[in-house]
C-alpha cells in the first residue's frame, strides 16, 4: 500500500479518489441508458409484438457474456505486466471498445444481431469494470473505504438518473444518444488512464515468479464464510435491482399510462426521486466515514427497505404512492450501496489475486442480468404483468437481507509494505 493509503490522505491521493469516482459515474452513464432505454426501444422497433422476448434474449446472453468476461479480464489483469501497469491498458481498451459496440447495437436489424451487439457491449464494459474493481482493493486504504464506498454507492443510481434525463431531454434519435454517451465516456476515462500511474513496489506487483498470481484455486475464496455470504447477499440484491431497472420502462408504461407524460419521462421521474433518497443516505455515511461502526447494519437496513419499497410499488394503483415508494427504494439503495464496496473489499481472502476475486464478486451483478430475463419470460408466458416482476424483486431483496444478517464481523486485512508512484 502507498503512504497515501496507510497514513494521512495526500493531495495526489485525493485527486486520484475523486477521479476514480468520476470514472465510475461515467462508466455507468455509458451503460445504464443503453440497457434500460436504448436497447428496449430498439427491441420494440425490431418487433413491437415480441419486444419482451427479444429484450430478454439479448439481456440474457449479454449477462452471460458479462459474467465470463469480468472474471476473465480480472484474472488476466492480475497477470498483466507492462510499463503502463496491470489495470490501465484494460481500462483504456474497454472504453474504446464500448464506443465501437454502440455502432453494432445501432445497426442491428434482427433479434440475433441485437443480441450479438449487447454481448459485445458487455465484454467491453467489463474490460473497464474488472480493473476498476481491482484498483479499489489495491489503492483505497482501510481508513478511506467507508467514505469511498459511500461515494461509489451513489454512482450507479446517479448514472441511472443522469442517463434517464439525457434520454428524455437530450437527443431524440438513437444515433444522437449514442454519440453523446461516447463523448462522455471518453472525456472522463482517457484522462484518468493518462494522469494516474499505478504504484510499483507493492507485494502484488512483484516480478513474475513464484509469487505471481495463478489461475488455480479459482473457487477457493468461497471457503471463507463471509466471502460466500457477501457474494450470495449481493447476488440476491442485484437480481432485485436487475428486475426493477430492466423492466421499469415497461412497468410505468403499463401501470401508470398518462396522456401528458411519456414513459421515458415517468422513468426519469422515478429514477430521480430514488436518486434523492440515495444522496441523503450516502451523504450521511460519507460524512461519518470511519466512525461508522457496522457496515453490516447499514447493508441489512438497506435490504429491508428495498424489499418493502419494491413490494409497495408493485401493488400500487396511484402514481403518487409509487413515487413515494421509489423515494424509500432510493433510501434503501443508498444504505446498502454506501457500504457495498467496503464489504466486498474487506471480504477478499487473498491479496495476490484481487482482480480475479473481485471479478468473482462482480458475477453477482452479471448473473442477475441473465436471471432477470428468464424470470420475465416465465412471467410473460404465464400471463403475468410487469407488476409480478416487481413482486419477484421484493422477494430477492428479502433473501438478500437474510444472508446479510448471517455475516460475522469482518476481519481487517493487514496493510502491506510501502510503495512509490512512478
Summarize the structure.
The chain has 422 residues and is mainly alpha-helical. The protein is built from 13 helices and no strands. It has helices at 3-6, 11-46, 51-79, 88-107, 111-139, 142-169, 174-195, 225-255, 263-288, 295-315, 319-346, 354-381, 386-405.
Task: Give keywords.
13 helices; disordered C terminus; 0% strand; 422 residues; globular
List the helices and strands and how they pair.
Blueprint: H1 3-6, H2 11-46, H3 51-79, H4 88-107, H5 111-139, H6 142-169, H7 174-195, H8 225-255, H9 263-288, H10 295-315, H11 319-346, H12 354-381, H13 386-405
Helix pairs in contact: 2-3, 2-4, 2-5, 2-6, 2-7, 2-8, 3-5, 3-12, 4-5, 4-7, 5-12, 6-9, 6-11, 8-9, 8-12, 8-13, 9-11, 10-11, 10-13
Q: What do you see in this structure?
A:
With 422 residues, this protein is an all-alpha fold. It has helices at residues 3-6, 11-46, 51-79, 88-107, 111-139, 142-169, 174-195, 225-255, 263-288, 295-315, 319-346, 354-381, 386-405.
The low-pLDDT segments are: 1-8, 201-216, 411-422
- Terminal CA distance reads 14 Å
The biggest sheet, with number of strands, parallel, antiparallel or mixed sense and barrel status, is: none
The succession of helices and strands, N to C, reads HHHHHHHHHHHHH
Please tell me what the overall shape is: globular
